What does this fold into?
Amino acid sequence: MVKGRRVLLGVTGSIAAYKAVEIARGLVKKGALVQTVMTASACRFVTPLTFAAVTGQPVFTNEIDFTENGEMSHISLAAQSDLVIVAPATANIIGKAAGGIADDLLSTLLLVARPPILMAPAMNCRMYEHPAVQKNIETLRTRGIEMEGPCSGDLACGEEGSGRMADPSDIIARAEAMLAQSGDLAGRIIMVTAGPTREPLDPVRFISNRSSGKMGYAIAEAAVRRGARVILVSGPVSLPQPSGLEAYDTVTTAAEMHDAVMGRLGGADALIMAAAVSDYSPDQPAAKKIKKQDDTLAVTLQKNPDILAEVGKRRKRPLLIGFAAETENLEKNAREKCRSKKLDLIVANDVSKPGIGFDSDDNEALLLSASGDATPLPRMSKSRMADAILDKIAILLQSTRS
It folds into this structure.
């Protein structure tokens, strides 16, 4: 997780320096403590005051700066940081870092810092493709320094090619993934299901539900940030695939979701069934489009596989987390589902309330454990709720660690 982590942001002299402000803003918004170090040339593009205002922290710009405790800045800043990001990373700073040159605060700091270090190259396409720059980048990679980008496209100089700094959101996502390697779910394999299923009536019609997949995707993204190896099995949704997943399977029907889950379940530490799986499907879908004829149409439905119940019967199984979307008797119905399916945890929400649940960015839920604990989760974004759910899962997983 980013919250509470210390990130050192090094900014160098590139037209892309203004994008570093968005990186700082995004990290601060996620709860990180961001300390900025700027080179002299970077200050010609963006003022230190801008970063100070965004981060709420003093900005270091000179090698002879000292901290409030009188320590040498390049030593203390490196020692106190959980992650160092250099964005934009010019050919100059890349060459200095590769060659061990220390002629300002940032380059000196990079000699002291130890991975994780992330650089986001930004320069003219011909500079980036130059053999010397490529050799320097490879040298840094062999030392454990990671690179994000660059991207291809129109450059500030008017040329087109590789050299644009990666998008700030991608740099932040990469930073989250790197910080997550020491997160509370590091080393765990978490399987998440998300979205609806569709059960065909004929080639053009199907039975489904209102699930958007937002809750499941939020959980998958949060689990990646916290260091887990995440397997996401998704029904048909209109959401971008989260980055950092170990595996991503897309399915349509309940039967396909059953097969995908069972096929990848081995080794999983937890199965989080956030998907809204159809309980029934037409027993004989029509091979051709059903034409409108009679006033009524009778369809016989058959019960679909119950994934949670099947996994719950296994002698050796992962931690099981289910969801209960109810319109009445929320706690009673959720506890019965938790008991009957042998779940370790269930997330229950009242979908009759407006503005939460299906196809909404917010949710409100009751977290119930098999031991009888009940934790109300007030209305919040699904992203925040994902972390609240994973907080409980992390505790349960920790108690099972031998």
Q: What stands out?
A: The longest strand covers residues 319-326. The chain is about 35% helix and 25% strand. Residues 382-400 form the longest helix (19 residues).
